[in-house]
Amino acid sequence: MKNFIFFFIVFTTIIWSSNVECSSHLHPLDPITPSEINLVRTIILKAYPPETSKNSTIAFQYVGLDEPQKSTILSWKYSKTKTPPPARRIYVIARFKKQSLEIIVDLSRRSIVGSKVYKGHGYPMLNIQEQVAASVLPFSYGPFKESVKKRGLNISEVVCSDFSVGWFGEKKTKRLLKIKCYYTEGSVNLYMRPLEGVEATVDMDEMKIVDYKDRYVVPMPKAEGTEYRASKLKPPFGPILKDISLMQHAAPAFNLHGNTVSWANWEFHVGFDVRAGPIISLASVYDLEMQKYRQVLYRGFISELFVPYQDPTEDWYYTSYFDSGEFGFGQSASSLEPLTDCPSNAEFLDAFFADANGKPVKIPNAFCIFEKYAGDIMWRHTEVAIPNEVITEVRPDVTLVVRMVSTVGNYDYIIDWEFKPSGSIKVGVGLTGILEIKAGTYTNTEEVKEDIYGTLLADYTIGTYHDHFLTYYLDLDIDGEHNSFVKNTLETARVKDRKIPRKSYWTVVSETAKTEADAKIKLGLKPLELAVVNPNKKTKPGNKIGYGLIPGSVSHPLMLSDDFQQIRAAFTNYNVWVTPYNKSEKWAGGLFVDRSRGDDTIATWTQRNREIENKDIVLWYTMGFHHVPSQEDFPIMPTLTSGFELRPTNFFERNPVLKTKSPEPAHWSNCTK
Amino acid sequence: MKNFIFFFIVFTTIIWSSNVECSSHLHPLDPITPSEINLVRTIILKAYPPETSKNSTIAFQYVGLDEPQKSTILSWKYSKTKTPPPARRIYVIARFKKQSLEIIVDLSRRSIVGSKVYKGHGYPMLNIQEQVAASVLPFSYGPFKESVKKRGLNISEVVCSDFSVGWFGEKKTKRLLKIKCYYTEGSVNLYMRPLEGVEATVDMDEMKIVDYKDRYVVPMPKAEGTEYRASKLKPPFGPILKDISLMQHAAPAFNLHGNTVSWANWEFHVGFDVRAGPIISLASVYDLEMQKYRQVLYRGFISELFVPYQDPTEDWYYTSYFDSGEFGFGQSASSLEPLTDCPSNAEFLDAFFADANGKPVKIPNAFCIFEKYAGDIMWRHTEVAIPNEVITEVRPDVTLVVRMVSTVGNYDYIIDWEFKPSGSIKVGVGLTGILEIKAGTYTNTEEVKEDIYGTLLADYTIGTYHDHFLTYYLDLDIDGEHNSFVKNTLETARVKDRKIPRKSYWTVVSETAKTEADAKIKLGLKPLELAVVNPNKKTKPGNKIGYGLIPGSVSHPLMLSDDFQQIRAAFTNYNVWVTPYNKSEKWAGGLFVDRSRGDDTIATWTQRNREIENKDIVLWYTMGFHHVPSQEDFPIMPTLTSGFELRPTNFFERNPVLKTKSPEPAHWSNCTK
After folding, report:
1. How many CA atoms lie within 13 A of A367 on its CB side?
2. Which of A306, A382, B177, B255 to pair with A183, CA 20 to 30 A apart?
3. Residue B161: its chain A contacts at CB < 8 A?
4. Where does the UniProt annotation place the signal sequence (chains A, B) (predicted)?
5. What's the pLDDT at B251?
6. What is the interface pTM, i.e. ipTM, of the complex?
């Protein structure tokens, strides 16, 4: 279906030859710059000029790097001679005349090199402008104004927000959003105060309300006790925390060359995508014995987030978000606050994305990078077995963290990529922000005689049960591209030797996954150790060179697998999947997720049951949280943390931090304490 | 069987009236002081004077606080008028004339107030002197000297260590230990270099070798590559870590009144026991709204550690340690190194225990306490839904850590109790130190045609598979002593309303455990949320006031449950048990664990199936690690961390850190950076 459009090439080259900046890129995976965004916009608006008739202005839904082939990147990266980076191509998804377009722009040629109309199910990521436009529609909609009036609310204190509607088996879908509204009088904590029962449905192509419901009136939860701004709270304050900082002699302790970070024994590239958020690429670890950097992670990012709510009633049943594919985890990044979001030794990076009009938007301080020392111990030992000698040898643990916070509506996700000198990559996720509340008629659980699908947190305030599933794309390249996936099962064995009075022990039964079917894993059922190994290389004692996956808290989806939203989120059915590398398989829930039907997820891709042994493979890992809200989550949630670790497992011949010296504690001279 | 001996009372009162110090104790749970240890020794040696015949000197195996009744402690603690702390009583286990004695000494009366001979199975904790005495026996044992000579080793470079022997169904047992030996020529990393095949059995009552085996000779693993002291390693060093510190204006940020710590909204007592190590008592959290401290944890400590190795061959099958009950987790505490074991803002506490002769031994810097700031976020939110207003409100997370490191032979356990202003208590365990190695004939896995029960880490060096199970005693008193244990199961439900296109959702099914049988839980089988609640108090909206248990990595024992060592370690059969509080039920594997038969474990106590609803209850939680060694663990292990969290769950009416202000970052004036 590709409809290549070549005629722009010559024209655009002439026009923009003065502001070429493509070749100035340090790295082919660098995020798109504002000038590149502007260039893309100009090129696309030439091809799709606005028409005076309604709805015919092209709208940018996704503008991202069309990554070069992996082989191209690797040969650029590892070439002995300095070669210019491969050409920059930008992949655009746009809405135009009620259709979804996929457009590829070649920046060096300054032209569209491919475009097609997407004919499949689902719709592209929502841009921010259209969400805002939809959210203000109720204010000029008579029945809504009536609803506000009926509730005795001041309409100037009402704000509305948009919700994706999912798919429930409809044969034909439109591009719809639901709008729900909140009250801000007396508190900015709007999520605590919904206009429950009121719901507008917006046709996004027409940008108008096509359905409206005012089902019932319940009391508006009080503003009292919901405020979270220190400036608005009244004494007493507490608990009182005293001054504390991470202190370094020379911050930053890492080097930033463009977007490439080098620190201690690590080197990696930090990218940004409007949909995925942070992308870590080409992470390599320096092997002191081999005296070279060795590949670990070609590319890692959050591919999708699935957040299903568990209230099946008429006005809540559809509530399930795909925070990446529907709302854009990258465009939801919040500017990080120095000293609170990140410690005083942090450095910050901005991020840019294209808005609905194709214009660049800056997110200042979207990333922070900092060296972390939490008082932890990297390794230690005290030896007292040798007469007349006590040996104590200790190394403190210092790590490097790359952080982004993405605030998708009410929830704030703290996303950390932490690099450890021991070779581990720890991925941390913190959940904080504000619960989604359903207003009810109850003030005490004693009045509740039915399932309210949540916890009563305060008067009329129900914190709805829900889950968070985060699916990570982890293209590990363990010491090279050709890898295998190994399941080591710890199995109980019976002792056969009659002389031995012991009856049993456990041992390791190792299986290498041949095809995708062998690598679908629900964690927690058996004691398993999982690793991606390089079957073409062995350590000196003959072990497979690998990295293990150390899961954090394990959760499984609890909805039925044939339920519509779960079909769309079928990528959460297993905690682990392994696929052969395929450039087009990036988004676990599919490219067009809004109103998708589950026909483009890992679950469908892996039905082909492709071979994955000694191939370039991708590990997909889903971390999950079931969230039963508690009163401590009201009116704002203390961070709930989880994560996982990629840990070298027979990757090094020995402990890679054996020869690390303890850093000196930082202290200044001539200080007034 | 208690054999009270009263006649000492008057006598001892006269003698020691001058050096009374008992009443000077700040807290009835304070650890035993050196003077108290001396006093106990004097009192006991009067009653059991040494005899000239062999083996009739009393040996102190355990000297610990005989805790006052909980009701006594609580009424002392919460009495409105200042009352003197209850009398100090010391509980002693000693070996005398090949018998185990239990003796209670009343320090204010300066007398023995109870003593009995223990007639049950098993033996007391090993003291350090007898372990040393056993470990040197081989050096005067001819056949051993022959074995060393046969291997061409220099006996002055051989050291030996002692191993508990367990129980394998023997009808009659003796107090035996096995001795294995290691080579230190060229490296202090002795555990890497066993004299494999050589094993002496020592009768501890006779203190002589009663059996000796030299089964086979395998190559001695090389010293090369096993050294871990920076001073002995050769360049290149790396990865290079730069100066970094936790910095505070005023350290410590906590108050230490005796052994009672108060910090932010927490108050708790830090104790020490020669067997258990650190004991946290009477932890209460200040409720800003109620303006009072509320009880959380009456007493928490590691009750037992079970470390079974998975090599079932003749010279390894018995290898399973009970690091608390056999070796004394407290007496194994290592002195913490400032700046490496703990950050620069840490304060240190010493610990004391009684040695074999009843004399006090000091462990300098056994504890450190420090405020921790790891760059984490306590809570945050960015709000963009309100027109013309961006709200960002963030609080950094600062916590307080109490740390002890216990080095039981080769392994170093980092034990952290971390208190969070949000009301959580996080318990962290780090495993580091040195693996236990079996020497084999292999240099490459290709030569291996059988199960070697471990990972080949280097030439002739097999890291044996093993587990670590740590069982925590958690006497939670959630806002009072009478508590219940609640299991909330997340269950899939079908949507019944035909109008709703969704098919399913999950909801919470809550069960309160009536008896001990209801509270035996293997985690991971079902999605569960566990909490200890106070059924007599409710929050304003009517929720049960509680604390949730958030498990870390979940592991189950893999040995058969009727295998002898597993019978002894039956307390690991479930991750969670709940018992009614019983002062005598402290040690999950029994009081006399060495060679125990499993007749005094949680598994046997709970067979009575006592009522636990609305009672003073104790939660027992077992954290487990299966350890398949990797080459990165050689020659010293990077720390592997796990833990669990006790998290307020409808304990507070709202987020208890809502009104916390961000601490200022610490900085000095007049500094030369």
Report:
1. 24
2. A306
3. 385
4. 1-22
5. 66
6. 0.95
